[in-house]
Design goal:
It contains eleven helices and twelve strands. The protein is an alpha/beta fold. Strands 9-8-10-7-11 form a five-stranded mixed beta sheet. The radius of gyration is 38 Å and the shape is elongated.
Amino acid sequence: MTTIMQLLIHIRGGVSFVMSSVLAVGKHFRLGIISALVCLACIFSCASTVSKTQLPNPIKIGVRTVASAIGNNISKNKADGFCGTFGKELQEELKKLDPNGKRIEVEYHEIKNEGLGYKYPRYHGLKTEKIHIECGPNSSPSENLKTAVGIKFSDSFHKTGVKLLLPEKLVEDLNSKSRNVKDIKVGVVKETTTSNLLEGIVDNIRPYDTRDEALNALDKNVKEIEAFASDALILQTILDSGHNSKEPFHRKGYTIFKKDGYLTSVPTEEYVMAVKEDTTFSDKLIDSINRTLKRDKISQARKELEQIEDSTPTTPPTSNILLRLQEFLSSIFTEILGVFITLLSTFIILLKGTRSEQRKDLRLFLWILGAVLCVLGVIIIAIWLQYKKL
């Protein structure tokens, strides 16, 4: 009996030892499994973070073409103006991030909602992620607008201010002090930095939903408004090229007020690049943009913008030529009318005092007179067509 009890005790001890060993191994095994899973999670998390913070390829730049010196002639791989230069230099700057990696391409996309007002809000392309950068005359004060919520801005690339597009006659009145800027009726697009700026400068502000509505109102004879306010480079484009492919405003007797400054004593608009704020790569993209804006070719492009703005005329560049041409056409018409009346009177007198056999000569004279008048008419029409092209 004693032997049996001792045997059972030894067996129980052995089982206890085996169980404790198994439990110990299991415990360490579980710890190993848990450690392995934690490591894998960290690896995948890091890989995911790296992937998400990488810049998109291609980077899509949306270009606002309302100011042609900043952006125009947009195609997928090319843009003219400052934005075109910026895109090329950005692509060069991005090579530094990973010299051995895949080349990051740049695409250009024209932004279609130019000046269409709050129904087609600014930065819509960024918010819907159709583009990654918006390049154009976007002012840094626009961050205070409702449309700029969720948008992040770069450093400034151009400083400018607000001017007025108005008839030449009104400029003469303003310069002679017979009229005051504060008293004229000025049109402006709603929900813009210009709209906010005009308060306190102009008493009679007329807000419009879109730029086209304001320009159409300016171009009417009913004097709904007397001037349109916007940034200097935008007004220069309207003066030179019109809007919506319509006739340039310089042909209609409009000009820009004023050449030697803005409506304010100092520039109030600082143009910036815009990106969507809450993307995983927005900080990295803004950093790349700011570095690009310091490149030499960008500095040269900035100077060119300044030169274009400084050359903004206070009178249409062809106005003197057009006035002389108008006077010339008027004098020609007056001379032709005088000659026609004289010849017609002579013809009537001769017709009364001639016999039937002499009337053949008068008919010939009449044909010659008609031919001369036709030639002169063609010349006048040709000159007039040339005038319309100026």
